[in-house]
Each structure stands twice: as C-alpha cells, then as structure tokens.
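#data-curation
PF: Archiving a pair of folding outputs for the training set. Convention for this channel: one message per protein, sequence first, structure tokens after, nothing in between. First:
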Amino acid sequence: MAGDLALGASIEGCSTIPEADGRVDRTIAEASKSEKLDKLEDWAKTNQIKFSKGKCRVLHLGKNNPKHQYRLGVDLLGSSTVEKDLGVLVDNKLSMSQQCALVAKKANGILGCMKKSVASRSREVILPLYPALVRPHLEFCVQFWAPQFKTDRELLERVQRRATG
C-alpha cells in the first residue's frame, strides 16, 4: 500500500546550501522536500495509487529542528514524536529506550506464557524453548536498535536472567 511507504529516504536526499557565513539556508531544503512530496503525489495519481494520508506522518529529528509543516497534495501531514517502522520504534531523539522496553515487555510476556503452559519447570525443558520463542524477539533488528544506555542493557539482561534462573 502506498500509504505505508517510508518516504524519509527519498525526501532526505535534499541537500542544504551553506551561506557565505557558514549558516545553512534551510528554506531551500524545505522547498525541495515539498517539491518532492508534490512529485510523489503526482506519481501516485498517474499510477492510480491512493495514499492513506492519515498514516503519513513527519518525524522531526534533532534538537534545533524548525519543525516545518509539509503537505501531501492539499492535506497537511501530521507530526509525531515516535513512529514504528518495520516493527522498530524510533523517536525524535533517535533514542531506543522505548524499543528496549517494548521488546522486554514482549519477551517477559512470552516467558510468562511458557511458565504457565509448560508442566515441567526443569531447565532441560525450559532452556530449549528460550531460543525458539523468546530470543527472536530480543534479536529482531538489534543491529539497528541496539541498547545505547546501561539501563536498557540491564532491562534486557533481566529478561535473560529470568529465563535461565
């Protein structure tokens, strides 16, 4: 579905032009992004693809971001502080703490279901289930969202200790 496209890669290809004093004229870059959104809308109309504009949002990254508003056709795109793409939560600070908390919650839920549904509590029974049922959730896209903070690592390590303890 076209509304589910992650448009950031094509839009972020815009370059900024530094002024003589080193400042960056962001208005040129913002206009270019708007033009690319207009081209995308025209392409969708030409190919008879309808965007689900309610699903399209802008994730403003960085502390000094001027947070421009963008349009897709005649509709303003909503702004968001956190978005989920391909199952990974990304916030406007590129902090992965929310993702770590979500993964730990899922893994703990699966561990709880395992302990309730498996009659034997012996390590010989529980340990083979861990790599099959829990670890895939802990490792999904970990190259991207790897825990950055000590508290996030400790949270995930607690899940592992709970499974093996």
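PF: Second:
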Amino acid sequence: MLASYDDVLPPPGDIQVLLLTLDSVSLSWSSPQGLTGPQTFRVTWGCDGETSSTRVKVIPPRDLKIDHLEETSFTLHWSKAEGMEKVPQHFFISNCIPGRDPLAAITDDCHKTFSNLQPGTEYTVSVSTVLTNGEQSEPVSTTICTSKRSSPNYSSSSLYQKLQ
C-alpha cells in the first residue's frame, strides 16, 4: 500500500539508543504498526535551537568474498556495513540456481558454507542486513561457478567469481 502526501503515517515504535558517544548516536526502532516491507525514515534532531534531519535506510553488508571454492562447495564471507559493527543484526541469505526455487537462510554469522552443490553450475548468492526490528537492506550479490568434475586437468581458470 502506497501512502499519499495527505495520509498520516503511524510513527515508528520502541525507539532505543544503542550507542552514544561524544559526537554520535546510534538508534534502533521498530516498523510503524501496520506497515511491512522496506521503509525509509527521516530522522530529525536538534541542539541549541538548531535542527537537522537525514533520511535513514538499512545499509547492506559489504566485502563479499569467496574462499574454499571446490567442485561441490564454497564458503561466502562478508563484513557488516561500515558504522553498523555494534548494531544487533542478522543476515538473510538466498542462493539461486537458474530454473530452480531459491533457497533462503538467516544467520548471525558473517559467513556461510554452501555444500552438496553440482559441479559446473553457476550459483547466485545474495546477502541482506536484517535488523532486530525486521528492517532489511537491499541485497548485495555475487555469482559463483563450480568446476566440472569431468575435467582431468583441474585448473583455477575453470572457477570464477563475478560480483554484481
């Protein structure tokens, strides 16, 4: 449901201060009641009679890297978004193979091992940040291709990683 400029939207709930320093504050809040899906918020603050505001959205993870790439498995690693290291969060991971239904998982870790894969198959993996209030970032993706088992001259050139 899209809101028009005339609609009065409910405020977010359960605003919490997660981290407070001399020159910054990290806040968390739950989605407004009755609204679902990705949302963008405007945060306004004031000090000594001056106000300022900014638009806020959930930042996706960064630095997707593949290691232990084999014929039937690989491990994907990533980093939390910059500035989000101390913010409680989970990660939503989806693994897509062309022509098949995507597989999905949620983890607290910054890595995931995929196993029992088919040799010579291309896999697209997406990772999104999910905050404890359910807010989710846009996904970041990478495409990985496993090598073909039938190749007697195994070489790293038969494996590739393509960042999207």
